[in-house]
């Protein structure tokens, strides 16, 4: 089974970005930042998804992210599938924070149960086949709309780019670099949508 060990984000101000992910979101074990002068304009083509236990934790993390300089793209609220919101980190990365629960059962915490890298792709089926050919295990697949892989510590999903941008509350337009390196044990390669993979 191919796995993802770490998400490496590229930023023009890496120290400040690293402080945001560590201090506001507590992601230092799975997210790191490296310097880059590559320009990124608009939607970077991916969303960093954080799954937590309950609405109070969503609210707490959205608040901490906002206080640390993030822009709230979608205020947290109830939906058909649970409770969640979206923010844009100072480096431009879109982060969704969500819970499948609509009710609080314990005091809010800062615990993140799952980290999921959501890639916005041009052709979900073609990208699914590309990854399956490289040893990625498909956990769920819904035709041309959505694919979920079993990738260990960091989850991976494929979504249509426009659909993913809509969920995140941003325009799907974007240019230049994704500003992302996906570090795992699947080898070094670039996928059909330009997402770069490297060794963990």
TrEMBL record:
It comes from the Bacteria. InterPro entries: Glyas_Bleomycin-R_OHBP_Dase. This is Glyoxalase.
């Amino acid at each position: 089974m191919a796995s993802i060990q770490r998400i490496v984000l590229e930023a023009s101000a890496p120290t400040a970005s690293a402080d945001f992910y560590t201090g506001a979101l507590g992601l230092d074990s799975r997210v790191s930042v490296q310097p880059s002068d590559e320009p990124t304009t608009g939607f970077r083509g991916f969303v960093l998804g954080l799954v937590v236990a309950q609405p109070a934790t969503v609210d707490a993390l959205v608040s901490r992210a906002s206080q640390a300089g993030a822009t709230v793209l979608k205020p947290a609220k109830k939906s058909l599938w649970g409770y969640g919101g979206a923010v844009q980190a100072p480096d431009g990365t879109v982060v969704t924070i969500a819970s499948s629960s609509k009710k609080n059962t314990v005091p809010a915490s800062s615990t993140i149960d799952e980290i999921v890298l959501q890639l916005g792709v041009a052709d979900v089926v073609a990208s699914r086949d590309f990854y399956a050919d490289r040893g990625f295990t498909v956990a769920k697949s819904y035709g041309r709309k959505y694919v979920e892989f079993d990738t260990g510590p960091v989850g991976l999903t494929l979504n249509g780019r426009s659909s993913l941008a809509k969920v995140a509350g941003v325009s799907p337009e974007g240019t230049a670099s994704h500003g992302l390196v996906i570090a795992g044990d699947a080898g070094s390669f670039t996928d059909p949508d330009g997402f770069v993979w490297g060794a963990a």
